[in-house]
Design brief:
heterodimer; A: 437 residues; mainly alpha; MetI-like fold; 2 domains; three-stranded antiparallel sheet; 3 strands; 5% strand; elongated; B: 290 residues; alpha/beta; Rossmann fold; six-stranded mixed sheet; four-stranded antiparallel sheet; 12 helices; 36% helix
Chain lengths: 437, 290
């Protein structure tokens, strides 16, 4: 280095190389600092995300398993079908609660008192009697036999089996008495308790009993709502963007429209809910709590997002492609449909799916149009009452029962799963369309 | 012609030219010097003015483009030669603030009249752009697009024939015949530009406009395109805008010199480069400003 200094000095020129070298160190340090900031930002983002996922998953994972209890059920003909006619109506109305109570009593004969018997029955889910009923109605030949049947346990039993209840606490401070815990232990020792994958979570609608509550209504409701939203917002959004970007004259009116679209994107979503309530339900008389209205409201909400993303995608298509098409005599419409749209499609799809993901997680406007109702029966179409995943999460988070704590986190996991799935589809679609050069 | 080539060495003309005078110092002639007419004009333009909002970009230009000849338009940057070229197929329509007045005729039809369909006009007046801009589709689709939208081929065989013929005439067929289904954007710059020429001649226009078609290409690719232009003039009328005076000298029969929106001088290419009649033209081709 000193050699080169001498050479440059000898040549009588200012030692530019040395000056540059001086500043080089500063420049590289600035660069490193800049990179460090980036790495810190990303690390923090990943940490927060990891914390979020860890807390949700650790709390919610247990809800994907449900506790079942194996009982030897005596399908007593004198209780279920005293006439022996096997009339489905009679089988439907029979007291299966009595059958269940009898079976429990056979297993624990020491429980004799009225309150003890009630405590015993509380071990099994309220839904168990319907489970037995459905079993008998489907297989009438079971009547008069004794069968081992796996029945859904009550949510409190589920919590005890999963170790979520602190049994060292004083008996008066927990929902399960020492006697009940003793019975559970006895059942476990007899291998009569099992944890299985919780299909109820996906096949049932909402319920007051945590062990019976499921996401079916919310999943279907979200599906129908998003279907309506997608079917309306994608074509309308793309058409609006194409018109504004490719055909509309640039004047005061289009400027005004552009400003207002940007404003709409920033309007709080609950305002759209109020609008939906006033216009779609009160004025047009559409059904309350219906995915149709939810979809319409979310369409209004996602349209600005889709229009802005689509316009950006159209803007990013190089003008040389338009010139090339116009130059060989393609009309304006041909230029747009043959060349510009295919190139802009990946960007438009990305914008649309981001809008859809936003709509999937939206709660506030749906509360305004009644999608917060307690709904047990799954909707069969877009006009049936339904709820959606985020609203279901809100409802469960609001419920006092311990079983809903895990359920809430499980529902969040399902929602996040769908969001990840949608984003993956967005990436795949973009890759697919981009491969068409 | 060889004399013209030596007059304007590419290095002097294009890069290290030191301006000895400012463009604004020069006094513009009142009228175009030289003969603006062609013997068999395909396109005629008379008293064309172009405005970009308030800016008067082309001032009273009249020029013919003759059949089977190449007209070169030269001039310093911003002199309006590209703007003028883009009037000839109404490409300026895409610019909202652009307004064109005057009389531009293609085979006697006023191209700015209400009766002229702009799609039909652009089918008859093809254009090759400065930067090669093939569609992001296959080579075949690039060439087939024009004939297909205009319904020039009755069936697939005919379409294939048009595509092959056009590629052949653009001198590209031998290089790409085994990979017609591959993306046109995967070709080299020179090949892409020849593909764009093939795309233009596939529609079989009357006139081909070329807007600095070689400015993004290396000398070898440029030479190929220039040879191609020479061949194409047997079938088409060609107007070419170029920054390279050698190119104008090599490919054109007539040359028009534009300056600040005025058409200063028009004449046979030999005469313009060896014996310019105005001081402005002489200053430009000898490299005194640019």
């Amino acid at each position: 280095m000193s050699n080169s200094e001498k050479v440059t000095a000898a040549a009588g020129r200012p030692a530019i190389a040395d000056k540059v070298r001086e500043s080089l160190g500063k420049r590289y340090r600035a660069e490193q600092r800049f990179q460090l900031y980036g790495i810190i930002a990303i690390t923090m983002a990943i940490l927060f995300l990891g914390f979020l996922f860890a807390s949700i998953i650790s709390r919610g994972i247990s809800a994907f398993q449900a506790t079942y209890v194996n009982l030897e059920i005596n399908f007593d003909e004198s209780v279920i079908d005293p006439d022996g006619g096997r009339d489905p109506e009679v089988l439907h109305k029979a007291s299966y609660r009595g059958v269940l109570r009898q079976s429990l009593q056979d297993l624990f004969p020491e429980a004799s008192g009225r309150s003890e018997r009630r405590a015993l029955l509380a071990l099994i889910s309220n839904g168990a009697e319907f489970q037995l009923r459905d079993l008998v109605v489907e297989n009438p030949e079971l009547i008069g036999t004794r069968q081992n049947v796996w029945l859904l346990a009550a949510a409190e039993v589920d919590s005890v089996v999963k170790g979520q209840v602190d049994l060292d606490l004083d008996e008066s401070q927990r929902r399960m008495s020492d006697q009940q815990v003793g019975w559970i232990n006895q059942l476990q020792n007899d291998d009569r308790v099992e944890r299985r994958f919780n299909t109820t979570l996906f096949t049932n609608g909402d319920s007051r009993d945590p062990e019976q509550a499921g996401l079916r209504v919310a999943l279907l409701g979200s599906f129908y709502t998003l279907l309506v939203t997608l079917a309306l917002s994608f074509p309308i959004g793309v058409a609006a963007a194409v018109y504004l970007e490719e055909f509309a004259p640039k004047n005061k009116w289009t400027d005004l429209i552009e400003v207002n679209i940007n404003n709409l994107a920033a309007v709080p979503s609950i305002v759209f809910g109020l609008l939906g309530l006033a216009v779609f339900i009160n004025l047009f008389g559409m059904p309350r709590s219906a995915p149709l209205v939810g979809g319409l409201v979310l369409t209004l909400m996602t349209l600005p997002t889709i229009i802005i993303a689509s316009r950006a995608a159209l803007k990013s298509v190089p003008p040389s492609i338009r010139e090339a098409a116009l130059g060989v005599g393609a009309s304006q419409t041909q230029t747009v449909t043959h060349h510009v749209l295919p190139l802009a499609m990946p960007g438009m799809l990305t914008g649309t799916i981001i809008g859809m993901a936003q709509a999937l997680g939206e709660t506030a406007p749906l509360l305004m149009i009644g999608m917060i109702a307690f709904i047990v029966d799954p909707p069969s179409g877009v006009t049936d009452p339904a709820t959606v995943l985020p609203v279901q999460i809100y409802l469960w988070a609001d419920s006092p029962e311990r079983g809903f704590v895990a359920k809430t986190s499980a529902a969040i996991m399902v929602l996040l799963g769908f969001l990840i799935l949608m984003n993956a589809i967005a990436v795949l679609l973009r890759k697919r369309f981009e491969r068409r050069w | 012609m060889s004399e013209a080539t030596t007059l304007t060495d590419p290095i002097i003309s294009a890069h290290s030219r030191v301006p000895e005078m400012s463009i604004a110092d020069v006094e513009l002639p009142k009228e175009t010097v030289g003969d603006i007419t062609a013997d068999h004009p395909t396109m005629t333009t008379r008293n064309v003015d172009v405005f970009y909002a308030d800016k008067h970009a082309i001032i009273d230009v009249s020029l013919d483009i003759g059949r089977n000849e190449v007209v070169a338009m030269i001039g310093p940057s911003g002199c309006g030669k590209s703007t003028f070229l883009r009037c000839l197929n109404r490409m300026n329509d895409t610019i909202d603030i652009c307004r064109v007045t005057g009389d531009i005729k293609l085979e006697g039809d006023d191209i700015y009249s209400k009766d002229m369909d702009v799609v039909l006009l652009r089918a008859r007046v093809g254009m090759v752009f400065q930067k090669p801009n093939p569609f992001p589709k296959s080579i075949f689709e690039n060439v087939a697009y024009g004939p297909r939208i205009h319904g020039l081929a009755r069936d697939k065989t005919e379409l294939e024939e048009i595509v092959h013929q056009s590629l052949e005439r653009a001198g590209l067929l031998n290089e790409v015949k085994d990979r017609l289904d591959q993306p046109g954007t995967g070709l080299s710059g020179g090949q892409q530009q020849r593909l764009c020429i093939a795309r233009t001649i596939a529609v079989n226009p009357d006139v081909i406009l070329m807007d600095e078609p070689c400015s993004a290409l290396d000398p070898i690719a440029t030479a190929r395109i220039e040879d191609l232009i020479d061949e194409l003039k047997q079938n088409y009328s060609i107007a070419i805008v170029t920054h390279s005076m050698q190119q104008a000298a090599r490919v054109s029969q007539r040359t028009a010199y534009f300056h600040l929106g005025h058409l200063v001088e028009v004449g046979a290419t030999d005469q313009i480069f060896t014996n310019p009649r105005t001081k402005l033209t002489e200053d430009y081709i000898t490299g005194r400003f640019g």
